[in-house]
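Putative HNH nuclease YajD
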Amino acid sequence: MPIKKICNKAACNSLINVGDKYCDKHKDQGQIDKRERNRHYDKYQRDQKSKQFYNSKEWKLLREKIKLKFNGLCLKCLENKKIKVGVIADHIIPIKVDWSLRLVESNIDFLCVECHNAKTAEDKKIYGLD
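Structure:
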């Protein structure tokens, strides 16, 4: 019998599979939580210079160019002989480290969420970023 756990939604006692976060009734909660985390990050943590840059026409065009260049696939997964959709254009050398490389195409990879999170954690260790 598969192992079950309780839905992550407060006060919901529905049992779900271990790999899931929410029951069918609250499955949209994950997207709501993600939007809220992003909104909080943008408001309280992301510096205004970076926020303006990521909303700029130049960045959006370059991001789309990178996505098309790599057929929308995660580069790190491809290196490991896996095929996974990429969703994040990531600066190889973070813009907090070298602002001048922010629009340099060769400084940008296209990654899936998992690979981006791993790279961000690595960048924090290497460059002491928060």
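The mean pLDDT is 91.
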